[in-house]
Amino acid sequence: MSTVADKLAKKSTRKTSGKQVRLRLVYIDFWSAVKLSFLAAVALAIVTMVSFFLIYMVLQATGVLTQVDGFVSSFTDNSVRLSEVAGLPQVMAFAAVVSILNLIVVTVLGAVVAGIYNLAVKVTGGLLVGFMSN
After folding, report:
1. Is 95 helix (H, G, I), strand (E, B) or coil?
2. Those residues with Cβ within 8 angstroms of residue 69's Cβ, 6 or more apart along the chain or in another chain
3. In the structure, what pLDDT confidence band is assigned to residue 73 with cuts at 50, 70 and 90?
4. Is 101 helix (H, G, I), strand (E, B) or coil?
């Protein structure tokens, strides 16, 4: 009876004809780092918007918002209504503002990290990376 583990063990005992190469990463292109960090920031912005929406919907469905609204109105003699201040449009507008700020910060941080790495390479000589061709 042959299992997948047995087949993988047989494959791993064969010698590979691949050549191993060790390269040193000595430069990160500034614009490549900015583009990559921008794409990561866009993904983070989408996650932020969806998570704000889902958290608001869960809080509304469980009745937590109405309880907190009653608690706040008891302190303020009904002068402040939480449902007016923290409705879905306001929450999503806040999420959009947070997402835009995160987009800017993450993009700038990606550029700064690339610049710092390029300066650190002058002292350390770079990052040694190993590759193997099949």
Report:
1. helix
2. 81, 82, 83
3. confident
4. helix
CA-CA distances (angstroms) from residue 109 to 34, 112, 119, 126? 9, 5, 15, 20
pLDDT > 70 in the chain, percent: 87
CB atoms within 10 A of CB 121: 16
pLDDT digits (tens, 9 = 90+) for 102-111: 999 999 999 9
| Spatial separation of the C-alpha atoms in residues 108 and 93, rounded to whole Å | 23
pLDDT tens figures, 118-131: 999 999 988 999 88
Q: How far is residue 95's CA from residue 51's CA, in Å, rounded to a whole number?
A: 9
